[in-house]
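I'll show one example:
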Amino acid sequence: MAVSTTGTVGLDRITTAPQADVMTLAFPHRSRFGAFSLISAVVGALLIIATPSGVATPHRERWQWPTGEPVPVVEAFAPPAHDWLPGRRGVALQYPAPSPVYACASGTVTTAGPVAGRGVISIRHDVGGRVIWSTYLPVTPSVAVGDRVEKGDVIGVVEGDSPTLHWGAKTGRRTYIDPIRLTLGHPRLLPWDDAPAL
C-alpha cells in the first residue's frame, strides 16, 4: 500500500513486505531547479566581482565630437589612394572661430602649436589596445605637449576667423581613419521587423 501527502516534501510509504514498511522522501523537481538557479546566480555574481576594473567597455572607448555635439560635416573623409596624392585625411566640421574645442577621448598631448602657419593639436589615445592619434586644426591651444587630458576637456579654440574645424585620426605616421567612425562604437545586429516568427 502506498500513501502520499501533498506538501512541498511528500512522504511515500512503500510496502516491501507484509510485515515491514519503509519511509522515503520524495523531492519535487521544482526544488532541484531552485537549487540549480541559486548556484548559477552565485557563480555569476562571483564572475562579475572577479572582472578587472581596468577593462574598458565599448561605450567608454567611443570618441565624442570635438565640438561637444555633432555638427554638419562640410567635407567628409576621403583619403588618397597613395600617400603622395591629394585627399582629405580627416573631416571638416562647420564650427566657426572662436568656438571651444574638446578632447574627443582621454590621452596625452603630443603636438600643441603652429605647424605650417596654423595651430595644430594632436593627442595620443589608447583605444581597445591600439594607439590612435586625434588631430585638430586650426586651433589656438590651451594645452601643452605632455599634458594629460580627459575626454571632454577644453583643449583650445578654433583659430582666427576660420568657419570650420578640421578633425582627423591616424593609426600610424601615414595611416588615416575616419574619426566619426570612432564615435559610433561597435556595430550591433538588430532584429528585422519583417522577419517571420519562428
The first strand starts at residue 10 and ends at 17.
